[in-house]
Amino acid sequence: MHKELFYQYSSEHHSPKKIRLTGSLFSLDNGISQNAEGRLNNKGTEQEAQSIEGSYSFTSPEGQVITIQYIADEGGFRATGDAIPTPPPIPPAIARALDYIRSLPPDPSQKV
């Protein structure tokens, strides 16, 4: 049987600051919150693009507050935060091998 959950808004705020520039903030009574601001970059140029930057927080099952910051723009979606796993560092021997490969002249038989 599916259990439905309902949460009350603790607060909510939307503020259009300028044309195509908006902000949003909300929090729920279960500790979830979100804050975001959108903007138009390079307005009126060929490089015009929308972006949004913000963060969200929630409480993990262990009781720890988790906060994630993010930005989404023409470069894609990027999130940061202590709860996001990171890859291990590249071992020195592999790093040296990659440096060596990059130092070689291009192979003329391969198309770029």
Cα gyration radius (Å): 22 Å
Q: What is the mean predicted local confidence, pLDDT?
A: 82
- Amount of helix: 10-25%
Q: Order of strands across the widest beta sheet?
A: 1-2-3-4-5-6
Low-pLDDT residue spans: none
Number of β-strand runs: 6
Keywords: Cuticle
GO molecular function, one term: structural constituent of chitin-based larval cuticle
InterPro entries: CHIT_BIND_RR_consensus, Cuticle_Struct_Prot, Insect_cuticle
Pfam families: Chitin_bind_4
Descriptive overview:
One of its GO terms (molecular function) is structural constituent of chitin-based larval cuticle. With 112 residues, the protein is mostly beta strands. The protein has one domain (9-103). 11% of the residues lie in helices and 46% in strands. A 6-stranded antiparallel sheet has the order 1-2-3-4-5-6, with no helix packed on it. The protein is flat.
Provide key terms for this protein.
112 residues; mainly beta; six-stranded antiparallel beta sheet; 1 helix; 11% helix; 46% strand
